[in-house]
Amino acid sequence: MKIKNSSFVISAVSKKQYPEDALPELAFAGRSNVGKSSLINMLLNRRGLAKTSSTPGKTQLVNFYDIDGLFRFVDLPGYGFAKVSKTQKASWGKIIETYLQSRENLLEVFQLVDIRHKPSGEDKQMYDWIRNSGFSGIVIATKADKLGKQQIAKQMKVIRNELQMTPEAVIIPVSASDRSGKYQVWDLINQIFEVNAFDIHLERQNTSE
Ligand SMILES: Nc1nc2c(ncn2[C@@H]2O[C@H](COP(=O)(O)OP(=O)(O)OP(=O)(O)O)[C@@H](O)[C@H]2O)c(=O)[nH]1
Q1: Using a 6 Å CB cutoff, which residues line ligand 1?
Q2: Of residues 35, 62, 42, the one with CA closest to residue 142
Q3: Which one of 36, 61, 136, 161 has the fewest beta carbons within 10 angstroms of its own beta carbon?
């Protein structure tokens, strides 16, 4: 199956604004500025679909993207941005929690971490929450173009240890700059659909430019 159309659906703050149909959703969680929007654009071959920014903390809403009317990507608000008020932090936390705890459409949550850094306390909290909620605990390590091969291997171990990932939990290094890791992520997404008995299978070659 080829991806023909991907489009922005809605930026939601409250549950009332979430799309009402039962399409399956895959969510992306991570620190502000980790590269969620860039990853979504890379996966969909859409340069400006998800708005990227060099200013952290921009995505404060739950952004829904429709993919061929078959499923959705969900970009969750980035956490961990220091320069915001406590009230704002609490409200973002609530927005993330509401989506993650109440969304029946949600198949998997991908946790994004910057491959260069040790996961933060908030990354660990987020990861524990994901695992405790019954999701697989898939980690996507972003900005892999910033490191050499050996450093990537080393950092993958650091991330595994810090997040206390199980041996079978998957971690994929990706780069939105050189587009590495893209096929691994799509392969994994296909597997997720298969495991959840959805008749959706995206062709690898059709996601390349
Ligand atoms: N070198 C490099 N830079 C990247 C990569 N992915 C994202 N960036 C840069 O990192 C910054 C943040 O990227 P975004 O995709 O906007 O991050 P986000 O997680 O959506 O950010 P928020 O909107 O704050 O939640 C931008 O300046 C991107 O150009 C990557 O794979 N490699």
Answers
A1: 30, 32-38, 52-54, 56-59, 78, 142-143, 145-146, 175-177
A2: 35
A3: 161
Q: Please say whether the dihedral angle defined by the alpha carbons of residues 16, 57, 96 and 107, taken in this order, is positive or negative.
A: positive
Q: How far, in Å, CA of 78 to CA of 56, rounded? A: 8
The CA dihedral of 184, 171, 178, 31, to the nearest 10 degrees, is 130
Averaged pLDDT for residues 112-120: 97
CA 52–ligand 1 middle distance (angstroms)? 6
| Average pLDDT rounded to a whole number, residues 81-97 | 75
Give the pLDDT confidence score for residue 58 in this predicted structure: 54
Calculated CA dihedral for residues 187, 189, 192, 198, nearest 10 degrees: -110
What CATH architecture is 6-207? 3-Layer(aba) Sandwich (3.40)
Q: Which atom of ligand 1 is nearest to the CA of 57?
A: 24
- Tokens describing residue 144: 């892999």
For ligand 1, what atom is nearest to the CA of residue 53? 16
Q: Where are the alpha helices (DSSP H) in 15-85?
A: 36-44
C-beta separation of 168 from 136 below 8 A: no
- Torsion, Cα of 45, 51, 56, 57 (10° steps): -120
* DSSP label at residue 126: H
Domain spans of the chain? 6-207
**How large is the ipTM?**
0.97
